[in-house]
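Exercise (ungraded).
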Amino acid sequence: MRRPRKTCSVCESGVRVVDYKDERTLSRFLTDRGKIIPARLSGMCARHQRQLARAIKRARHLALMPFLRGHSR
Amino acid sequence: MTRPYELVYIFDSALEETQINERLERFHSLLKSPETPEPITSTNHWGKRSLAYSIQGKSVGYYVVVQFDTQPDALGELERQLKLDESVLRYLIVLNDGPAPVPPRPDQGPPDKKSAGTDKGPTDKSAATDESPADKTAATDESPADKRAAADESPADKSAATDESPADKSPATDESPAADDAAGVSASAEKAEEDR
């Protein structure tokens, strides 16, 4: 059975460009391990998934969010 | 031709504020040219923040976000200097061609939310990420700016709820056959009793 297509939550919120400095919002699109949730699961539109992926990677570079969560030495 | 850029520095948190300002001045002087006498459009000191992972053995960094207009040629020398300076733990230079100066819905004020989020510490953040009903009740007690922030967050919460709904559905569909089974079992049990 096909589920109805999930809608892109970034489109719905009216944001045009995903900001890499807003790590609180970005963290909603990560798994609890810190992986980027695929569009297949999050229902993001292609444009925003691309923007989001880039923003998350920038935020990781700036140590705003972890590359890997739950890893401690 | 000048282009708008955004530069995020992460300085060593051991540096004094004056030392950081001194370095910022030095870096920004590299961006000056006859065409761009005043390259810097905005400077935002986030201050000390804990890093998500340690960089050069340090777990705290001093963040500064700068927006500037300059010619692409000027970036090479700036980047060389940034790499040479040991007190710069990390930097990021990106083109800033987003519609940041013109927010799509100014009445809802996404910049407000952003600034509130960046100004607050990590402890505040966890409080802010509480669920919407709690936020609303808190917001009524607080200033109108906070109310607006709560209003901003509610669509996000809604969308989160819609994201979860398929997940919610599947357990529900799983449960219903189970409930049927239970009913069937009890019915069969009753039958068994009747047979006796």
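Further reading is listed at the end of the chapter. For now, observe: The helical segments of chain A are 9-12, 23-26, 39-42, 46-61. Residues 2 and 40 of chain A are 13 Å apart (CA to CA).
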